[in-house]
Specification:
CATH superfamily: Exo-inulinase, domain 1
CATH class: Mainly Beta
Distance between the termini: 38 Å
Strand content: over 45%
Largest sheet: 9 strands, antiparallel
CATH topology: Jelly Rolls
Keywords: Signal
Number of strands: 18
Low-confidence stretches: 1-28
Order of helices and strands: EEEEEEEEEEEEEEEEEE
CATH architecture: Sandwich
Mean pLDDT: 89
Helix content: under 10%
Number of helices: 0
Structural class: mainly beta
InterPro entries: AL/BT2_dom (IPR010496)
Protein name: 3-keto-alpha-glucoside-1,2-lyase/3-keto-2-hydroxy-glucal hydratase domain-containing protein
Length: 228
């Protein structure tokens, strides 16, 4: 049975929101974007407005922590537990076409060292995720349906597994996905990597964050928006 922690939203405890108008998104259209930097929450607490859980089994541990290297000081969201796939879902979001982007640092992990972003999530067992892996030095996009993860083929290429690219541990990186209809465009550290086509989850859903196994990962400046 999955252990899940849903934290109600409270104005004084929730992560700070920065509203910005983002024009000319890579896949077209305009969007209002929100950025969460976790700086208005107390270190050692769970962020408000999130469902902190997992896909599979284990004991994930998501918490707001002080981090001197954070892109937006002083705090980050840290995952330091161990589970099949630790998942943090922003409970009050519902986006069909838009984007999600996050800055992350892969700190440690002997089995895995991953950071991912989630979109169109129905729950912790059904969502799209793109993740960067510092042990494998690659970026891969998957669909997770009823708790089963499957990698998706890249447009214009038969076979293969994601895209090889350096993902150094101990450094901050930026991972982004723009999604419209069945088309998903992945960008890593400002460089477009690949696109994927898939129709499995066509409806609006929640956005969130993801890691794998024993990954210890820091997240900051989570930005997301819906294309208008």
């Amino acid at each position: 049975m999955r252990a899940a922690l849903t934290v109600p939203s409270r104005p004084l405890a929730r992560a700070s929101l920065v509203l910005a108008l983002v024009l000319a998104l890579p896949m077209g259209g305009n969007a209002m974007a929100e950025t969460l930097n976790f700086d208005n929450a107390s270190a050692g607490t769970a962020p408000a407005g999130w469902t902190l859980t997992m896909t599979g089994k284990g004991e994930p541990k998501w918490s707001v922590e002080a981090e001197p290297t954070a892109p937006s000081k002083p705090n980050v969201l840290k995952q330091s537990g161990r589970a099949t796939f630790p998942v943090a879902i922003k409970s009050d979001t519902s986006i069909k076409d838009g984007f999600v982007e996050v800055k992350f640092k892969a700190v440690s992990g002997s089995e895995d060292r991953a950071a991912g972003i989630i979109w169109r999530a129905k729950d912790a067992d059904n969502y799209y995720v793109v993740r960067a892996n510092a042990l494998e030095d690659n970026v891969v996009l998957y669909k997770t349906i009823k708790g089963v993860r499957s990698s998706l083929e890249i447009v214009g290429r038969k076979g293969g597994y994601g895209v090889k690219t350096p993902v150094p541990s101990g450094q901050w990186h930026a991972l982004r996905c723009d999604f419209a209809g069945s088309r998903f465009k992945v960008t890593f550290d400002g460089k477009p990597l690949f696109e994927v086509e898939d129709t499995t989850i066509p409806d609006a859903g929640m956005i969130g964050l993801w890691t794998k196994a024993d990954s210890v990962t820091l997240f900051d400046d989570l930005t997301y928006g819906e294309t208008r």
